[in-house]
Amino acid sequence: xxxxxxxxxxxxxxxxxxxxxxxxxxxxxxxxxxxxxxxxxxxxxxxxxxxxxxxxxxxxxxxxxxxxxxxxxxxxxxxxxxxxxxxxxxxxxxxxxxxxxxxxxxxxxxxxxxxxxxx
Length: 119
Hints:
50% helix, extended
């Protein structure tokens, strides 16, 4: 199974794609892939520690999207990936959504700016 992905050449280049292909062949799901896809809800094992990490990051001005990749905050936008996503998100006024508003509040708060919970 793994040999089929990697081939038989001992000096073949092992790329990120090779790594993903091996993981798929072995039936291994990447923790980072789950985090990217589902955000903080994927941190079931240690939710308190996960929240502490997110709070510590925010205190240093690093504010990850809690919904996974940024596109996850506006799932109603039909363009799923790439350069067209931002334009489509702006056109759809996705910024008014609850997930994006909360993310913007976290960004502002990490910079010491006052925030409110009104849209």
